[in-house]
């Protein structure tokens, strides 16, 4: 029996609708949730992501205090803008779109953001809070994966999850979230140093693929009935498309969907959840500001 395709678009819309409802209630109290998205330069992928985020802010009824900067902006100038936004009580969240031009130190920029406004969940304080289970912002894509599993009613407690990839943005944090008590998975992390990845994935009840390479996970690596979450977004040439390319994930979707119980498509799976959880985090930042 073919897998159930997890409709990330619909679940993301549901999350965003819930956020919009709470935003309108906060506004009645005189609090206008506000996110500042900083874009440095004109990287086409970054421009596309930022456009999506701004659209989502408008739909949620949030204030968009975005800052577009030329690629030649100095590190010092960028840090000054972040400092000003940190001090602005009307701004609840700050997000610097990565990657940054090579002359700017990304770590220094992430460290400069006030952790109470770190809606991306990348600041070491946010990461530390996630590790020890303290309140804080969870990184958007890993949190989105957990919400997908929850909304689909997929049992996680006592299950064996294998995560392929150990990036700071997806692999490591999603491993931690899967292992937390409320999710309760036993987690194995596979990466480029893993000798035989298939040996581990064949035992997995849940496989999260975040390697950044097409065909990382093939049908012969998946046990029947497993849940497959594909985080990858890879462009491959396709002359039949107007753009000249199409998007695929890190797993062989068509083959694996024949044996998995659930699977996320690319596009339309994990991707839409990232922006939905960013809206969720911005709302949370505004709610916390009310309690200060």
Radius of gyration, Cα only, in angstroms? 19 Å
Name the poorly predicted regions: none
Distance between the termini: 52 Å
Helix count from the secondary structure assignment: 10
Strand order of the largest sheet: 1-12-9-8-6-7
Q: Element order, helices and strands?
A: EHEHEEHEHHHEHEHEEEEHEH
Principal-axes geometry comes out as: globular
**Share in β-strands:** 15-25%
- SS elements, strand count: 12
Bin the helical content: 40-55%
Quote the average pLDDT. Answer: 95
Structural class, by secondary structure, is alpha/beta
Largest sheet: 6 strands, parallel
List keywords for this structure.
alpha/beta, 292 residues, 12 strands, 4-stranded parallel beta sheet
Polypeptide structure, described:
The protein is of the alpha/beta class. 40% of the residues lie in helices and 16% in strands. The protein has a six-stranded parallel sheet. Strands 2, 3, 4 and 5 form a four-stranded parallel sheet that branches. Helix 1 (8-28) runs parallel beside helix 10 (271-291), helix 2 (44-60) crosses helix 10 and helix 6 crosses helix 7. It is globular. The mean pLDDT is 95.
List the helices and strands and how they pair.
Elements: E1 4-5, H1 8-28, E2 34-40, H2 44-60, E3 63-64, E4 67-69, H3 75-87, E5 93-96, H4 106-112, H5 124-132, H6 140-151, E6 160-164, H7 171-179, E7 186-190, H8 197-201, E8 206-209, E9 227-230, E10 234-237, E11 245-248, H9 253-256, E12 262-263, H10 271-291
Parallel strand pairs: 1-12, 2-3, 2-4, 2-5, 6-7, 6-8, 8-9, 9-12
Antiparallel strand pairs: 10-11
Helix pairs in contact: 1-10, 2-10, 6-7, 6-10
């Amino acid at each position: 029996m073919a897998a159930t395709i997890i409709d990330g678009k619909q679940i993301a819309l549901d999350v965003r609708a819930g956020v919009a409802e709470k935003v309108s209630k906060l506004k009645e109290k005189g609090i206008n949730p506000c996110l500042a998205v900083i874009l440095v330069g004109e990287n086409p992928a970054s421009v596309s992501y930022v456009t999506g985020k701004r659209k989502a802010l408008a739909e949620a009824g949030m204030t968009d205090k975005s800052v577009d900067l030329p690629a030649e902006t100095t590190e010092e100038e960028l840090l000054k803008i972040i400092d000003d936004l940190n001090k602005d009580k009307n701004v609840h969240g700050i997000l610097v779109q990565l990657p940054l031009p090579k002359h700017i130190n990304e770590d220094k920029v992430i460290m400069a953001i006030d952790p109470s406004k770190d809606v991306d969940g990348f600041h070491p304080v946010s990461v530390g809070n996630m590790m020890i289970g303290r309140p804080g912002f969870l990184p958007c894509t890993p949190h989105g994966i957990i919400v997908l599993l929850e909304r689909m009613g997929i049992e996680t407690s006592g299950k064996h999850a294998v995560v392929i990839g150990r990036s700071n943005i997806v692999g490591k944090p999603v491993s931690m979230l899967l292992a937390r008590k409320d999710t309760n998975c036993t987690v194995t992390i596979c990466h480029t140093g893993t000798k035989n990845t298939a040996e581990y994935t064949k035992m997995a009840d849940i496989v999260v693929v975040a390697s950044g390479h097409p065909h990382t996970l093939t049908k012969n690596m998946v046990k029947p009935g497993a849940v497959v979450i594909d985080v990858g977004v890879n462009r491959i040439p396709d002359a039949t498309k107007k753009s000249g390319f199409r998007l695929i994930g890190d797993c062989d979707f068509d083959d694996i969907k024949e044996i998995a119980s659930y699977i996320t498509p690319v596009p339309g799976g994990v991707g839409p959840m990232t922006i939905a959880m960013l809206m969720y985090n911005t709302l949370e930042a505004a709610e916390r500001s009310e309690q200060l």
